[in-house]
Structure formats: structure tokens, C-alpha cells
Amino acid sequence: MKRLAFIGIGNMGWPMAANLVSKGFDVTVCDTDAARVARFVAEIGGHAAAGAAEAAAGAEAVITILPTSKQVAQVAALVKPAMAKGSLFIDMTSGQPGATRSIAADLAEVGVAMIDCPVSGGVPRAKSGELAIMAGGEAADLDRADAVLHAMGTSIHRCGAIGAGQAMKALNNLVSAGGFLIGIEALLMGQKFGLDTALMVDVLNASSGMTNSSQRKFKQFVLSRRFDSGFGLDLMVKDIGIALELGRDGGVPVPFSALCRELWLAAATTLGPGEDHTAVAKFSESMAGSALGGGNS
Questions:
Q1: Residue boundaries of the structural domains of the chain
Q2: Average pLDDT, whole number, for the chain?
Q3: Whole-structure pTM over 0.85, yes or no?
Q4: Dihedral class, residue 230 (left if φ above 0, else alpha if ψ from -120 to 50, else beta)
Q5: Which residue among the candidates 23, 80, 169, 219 is catalytic per the annotation?
Q6: Residue 91: strand pairing partners
Q7: Which pLDDT score, from 0 to 100, does residue 296 have?
Q8: Contact present, 111 and 86 (Cβ < 8 Å)
Q9: Arithmetic mean of pLDDT, 270-290
């Protein structure tokens, strides 16, 4: 599988597609931003397509990484007539498992298989090709996509049937979101007491309080006041919502998860659109009446 269409070259899609080009895949890129497509081809290589159907024509696999399953469904409808029987639709969006199963059933009508392969690791690991990929779908289809996935990630986890990868990704982000908030509250409490926040992060990372956020986010994006990790606050709220849907559908009581979503949603509403997910710290800071690291909240 060498000829690929890659649809959605945003913060994550650009470096992921770039890794495919660098690994020798024949990649045609497509995005709603035509100027971005032209810049990608000029800087990275590959081919430009004016639309999704044009990108999919002749491709052995179509890869999507888009904001929500709604956009994925729209793209799937556009590429369905152009995709050859036996080709593969690889959705790397952090989407809704139920919607993905519906899209997969629709594509199956024309002999196109679908797998869902959302990713974790953020922009830095997208650039280095070290993403963790959570995959759902038939084993034979995942086997066909193995080389493609390993060009973008180093850790491929087969989670089950179609939609299972996205279910796992939503639950992963729920745990990440909860860990981030509790860590920020701990830093605020420690700072009020008189502890140095950077020292606190070092101690957390040497102790049982270590999390992905303490390792990769607190100093880098919060204490630095950069708030530019490349993953949107609105997208985190969406993923937590998907996780809660899994709980409701399964009849699982999730009081802490529900509170976590309400806090993230309140932050998104208060801070407004376009904020990085690490900016949720500003919401906690506003409630505490102080900013971390001596910055301005």
C-alpha cells in the first residue's frame, strides 16, 4: 500500500502526512485551506488535490484526521464514488464510535473497508513519528495498514472492532483531562503555601504524582505562559463528551467524569473560542485569584 490520499493537514495532520512522504509513500494531500495544501507540497513534497474526491481517485487508502465525525462523514460521502473496491478508509480523527460504525457500513456497500486509528502524543510526537495509535477494525484490514501506521507512530494498539480505537482514545483523553485539572489545582495550592511551582513539577515527576501533564505540559505550556500545545480546548471538551456517552450507553455511573466535563466546558465557555487546551489552567487560576509561575492569568 503506497499510494495514499491524506485529507486534513492541520496541526496534527501536517507532520503525520510529512512522515508518510519522508518514508517513501506517494501522498496526495487535501484540505479546506488550499494555500496550506500548496505550501505543504512546496515544503514537504507529495501532490496537491483540489478536493477530497480528486485526492481519493486511484488511492489505495484514504486517510482522514478532522475535527469531528461530522466532517469525516461528509468526506466519506465525497470519496465513496472515487474509491476503488478493496481500498481502505483510515480515519485518524478522535471521533464518535457510533458515527464511525455508520460510516463504515456505508463504505462497505461499495467494497471499501474502514478502520479507526486515533492518535495520542500531540504535535511533538506527530513530528517525530512517535505517536501512540489506538486502532479498531478487522484484523486483516489493520494488517494491510500496518506499514502506513508505523510510518506515523511507534506504538500501535489493536483495541477491537470498528470504533474501538476511538472509544479508547476518548477514555484516554478523559483520564488526561482529569489529571491535568487536579495537577493544576495542586500547583495553585502549593504556590499559595509558598512552594516554588517549577520545583513542585520536578518533585511530582520524581514521585507517585507523576502524570503526562506534569512531564509534558505544566512547565512547557502553563508555567511558561505559552499555552500553545497545538490541541484545542474545544476538542478536549468534545473528547470528554464522547467518553461520557460511553458511560451512559453502558449504564456506568461516572460522577467524577461528569464533574470533569463540566469544569472543562465551563472553562471553554468562559475563555472563548480558539484557546489551547492547556489554557484551561487560566480558568482554575481565575477561581484561585492568582496565576501560576508569577504570570498574568
A1: 3-162, 167-294
A2: 96
A3: yes
A4: left
A5: 169
A6: 64, 116
A7: 44
A8: yes
A9: 97
Active site residue 169: yes
- Rounded CA-CA distance 180/260 in Å is 10
CATH level 2 (architecture), domain 167-294:
Orthogonal Bundle (1.10)
Output the pLDDT for position 297. 39
What lies within 8 Å, CB to CB, of 187 at 6+ separation is 197, 200, 201, 218, 222, 292
> Which residues lie closer than 8 Å to 30 by C-beta, 6 or more apart?
5, 6, 7, 8, 9, 37, 48, 49, 50, 51, 52, 54, 55
Q: Which three cell numbers stand for residue 44?
A: 514537504
pLDDT of 67 strictly over 70: yes
CATH superfamily membership of 3-162: NAD(P)-binding Rossmann-like Domain (3.40.50.720)
Q: pLDDT category, 19, cuts 50, 70, 90? A: very high
- What are the cell numbers at 196? 516554588
Q: Which three cell numbers stand for residue 198?
A: 517549577
- 238 Cβ neighbours under 8 A, 6+ residues apart: 67, 68, 94
Q: Take residue 108 and report the three cell numbers written for it.
A: 462497505
Mean pLDDT value across residues 167-193: 97
**Rounded Cα distance, 160 and 115, in Å:** 10
Q: Which of 114, 108, 116 is nearest to 133 (CA)?
A: 116
